[in-house]
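ENCODED BACKBONE
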Amino acid sequence: MQHIELGQLGEDLAAQYLTLKNFEILERNYKWGKAEIDLVCKDDNLLVVVEVKTRQTDVYGQPFEAVTKSKQRQIIKVTNRYIQENDVELEVRFDVVSIVKNQYQTKIDHIESAFYPLR
């Protein structure tokens, strides 16, 4: 499976998973410039920004470990833009959905409050 196909499949699986947990998917693949947020959701009175990382194996580490400080900063910047553009007045939480998907397994880990904006 190609990298882009795997990423799209992971985002689809994450969206299904979060919908089953009663999250409302507000936006998929929100872009600002070259940066992107995978999923923007609402969970009760929270805006939940979700980064999805999908791999075929965890031999080289868990997928969520690829959400570096640099990636976090980028997600936070794009989230600020989303909030301004959509006049959002909710608290924000940053989650990561980490998926290992291959012919033998589909393992989904949802990490709530995976990171916080630096103050």
Notes: The two ends are 40 Å apart (CA to CA). The first strand starts at residue 24 and ends at 32. The longest helix spans residues 3-20.
